[in-house]
């Protein structure tokens, strides 16, 4: 099946000479949730802006739903809803009016029932006639989402939707994202909250300094890059690691009574835990507790960016 | 053409006008009345008539032009500058609409508002001086073309401006003097010959002259020249807007 979004070798050089995107290629499948992860200034917003028509690309090709975003921009944009990173709203406007405007801009006939449904889903119905300036930051972000949903997009971009957002909205937002996915909508989000990308995204794309470092299924990425740590608590303090255990990658633990064992969990290969525990007993140490921890996407990410920087 | 989108922009912009309807109407009415008191009464007592037209009536077309031109530039300029300034322009740029449709929506709304103000001033003027408009259709044509062309011009200023000062600079420094010196309150035949020649380089002279001809059948320059001037100005603005559209100048980074 053809990808919903196809990005081919997109480059962007700003007027001041900065290369914000250095040949980005990316395919996004219909109905998937893709998380774009990258530090500030990586080019996430620039990439989204170019796909949506807010910014122009220096070179490259992008199609959405098979429509070229430059030559066939109407058909391409009709499919796209975008929730910007910044809260860009007209302060004196009223909630329902501004959401109606968004629908109108996409050439759709007025549909108050649908707008009501969107506003209710976002807990904005009570505020429908409030002025934007009277809303809290979280409410304003809900308005931005309502505007993006007002024209029934098939592709939704969420640019750092959870930055500075309260827990409740975050929960609502992920529910909405899952509902949209169930309805077949393709979702691309950027976020700083890596655990959330891990929890919600089907695939994760890592971007740094205008380059995509990798795009991989979230689970596979975790498995491949998933370094594990085992914290071994002992009955007695260990000042130095016994000779007999030198062949293991052991280091000092969080306190004097513990050690940390680092290993990579690769399918089909034994991580050597059994032999380690046997050797610990043989060395005369008494185990009290053992716990393991999987490295988060954040750790993986930090490693990747470091590799890339070298 | 995405008419639905044009209509959405137009309605949204007009809603802004309706919200501030009283400021929109009251201030031009008051300022026009003041002009009548100052120019019509004070100067009118010295210059009773110009080329057979009572001075009070003579200044009406110029007064309307003055307001319509400043209002058109201010409305259209602000209309497109504001979304740029607060960032809501992302929505226009990511919608399935062409730049032409954006222009039609914004300029249409700005021109409508200034035409309304022009007509309100005309109605106010009737309260002060009795008048007979000789060519009402031409009067409306000139009014519409002026609203349109200066709204286009204002739109360009709004795109060009990087801050509020710049937004106000051009109207204040260039347009207002051109209108005042454009024969709004006098006939160019009242000037010394040298100044009459210099005046011919002021494009606003042609507009006011044509507009005044529609009222009283009097003109400083020929009707054809007046029409040519305003159509030329409209064409030039459209050209600049087309270029902005091609390059995305100051709207897309
Ligand atoms: N309009 C612009 N002009 C010049 N440089 C820009 C502009 N917008 C963004 N940049 C630069 O491009 C790079 C990528 O920015 P951005 O896409 O916003 O990153 P991210 O969203 O990943 O934080 C940054 O170095 C930023 O400073
Ligand atoms: Mg960003």
Explain what you see.
The complex is a heterodimer of chains A (310) and B (253). Chain A has ten helices and 14 strands. With 310 residues, chain A is an alpha/beta fold. Chain A folds into two domains: 5-222, Rossmann fold, CATH 3.40.50.300; 227-294, Alpha-L RNA-binding motif (Alpha-Beta Plaits, 2-Layer Sandwich), CATH 3.30.70.1560. The two termini of chain A are 37 Å apart. Chain B has one domain (3-247). Helix content of chain B is 77%, strand content 2%. A two-stranded antiparallel sheet of chain B has the order 1-2. In chain B, helix 1 packs parallel to helix 6 (99-128) and helix 2 (21-43) crosses helix 6. The mean pLDDT of chain B is 89. At the A-B interface, helix 2 and helix 3 of A face helix 1, helix 4 and helix 5 of B. The site of adenosine-5'-diphosphate has 12 residues of chain A, from helix 1.
List its salient traits.
heterodimer; A: 310 residues; alpha/beta; Rossmann fold; Alpha-Beta Plaits; 2 domains; six-stranded mixed beta sheet; four-stranded antiparallel beta sheet; B: 253 residues; mainly alpha; 11 helices; globular; binds adenosine-5'-diphosphate; binds magnesium ion
Compact overview of the structure:
The complex is a heterodimer of chains A (310) and B (253). Chain A is an alpha/beta fold.
Spatial separation of the terminal alpha carbons of chain B: 25 Å
If you compute it from the alpha carbons, what radius of gyration of chain A comes out, rounded to the nearest whole angstrom?
A: 24 Å
Strand content of chain B: under 5%
Order of strands in the sheet with the most strands of chain A? 6-7-8-3-9-10
Biggest interface between chains: A-B, 35 and 27 residues
Query: What name goes with the CATH superfamily of the largest domain in chain A?
Result: P-loop containing nucleotide triphosphate hydrolases
- Rg of chain B is 19 Å
Order of helices and strands of chain B: HHEEHHHHHHHHH
Structural class of chain B: mainly alpha
Query: Which topology of the largest domain in chain A does CATH recognise?
Result: Rossmann fold
- Please state the overall shape of chain A, judged from the principal axes of the Cα atoms: elongated
Number of domains of chain A: 2
The second-level CATH architecture of the largest domain in chain A is 3-Layer(aba) Sandwich
How would you sum up the global shape of chain B? globular
H/I helix tally of chain A: 10
Largest sheet of chain A: 6 strands, mixed
User: Helix and strand string of chain A, N-terminal first?
Assistant: EEEHEEHEHHHEHEHEEHEEEHEH
Widest sheet of chain B: strand order?
1-2
The helical percent of chain A reads 25-40%
